[in-house]
Amino acid sequence: MDTEYWHNKWQADDIGFHQADGNPLLQTYFKELSLPVGSRVFVPLCGKTRDIAWLLSQGYRIAAAELSELAVQQLFADLRLEPATTATRGLKHYSAPDLDIFVGDIFQLTREMLDGVDAVVDRAALVALPEEMRVRYVRHVTDITGQARQLLVTFEYDQSQMPGPPFSISNEEISRHYENSYRISPLASVDVAGKLKGKCVADENVWLLTPLV
Q1: Please, where are the H alpha helices in 12-126?
Q2: CATH class for domain 120-213?
């Protein structure tokens, strides 16, 4: 799986992973982050998620990263915002009041470019990456966010029944990725209504990650 895979998905409008009303589990459990209004939240691999509209409506400032410029253009159109755009060290920076999105390879995004966040909301990023990329991704996001607390949403299912993405991530894998940096608190596990992509039974799991130091 490479960048061309995702560009092709967006060009073909093959975005069954997109939730038109945002993620209800995120909205239910976001309060567990205990963030004051006005805090800055990082949304990695954001696509054109409606989660951003919901977070903005709650009074939070958003930083995000996304590979597809088409997705980001559609996101700003959905929000009815006219962004300013600048080139920043190999990435394209789309900005509007309380919203900054960096377009390109997330691994090119640095802590200095991100310029500080209070928390991470990951409900579609970790699950979008194949296993060999997830270790690198976890380390990178932990680094560029200064080990900010996280609300993480994952799926768990029999991977032999359906190829990802979204990929299945076990509780044991969550521990391997995060136990050295975070206190891991499971918040919820619910059945995916109508099966995942209508194909297989799956659980959607919500985690709170709190820095150990």
Answers
A1: 24-29, 51-57, 69-79, 111-114
A2: alpha beta
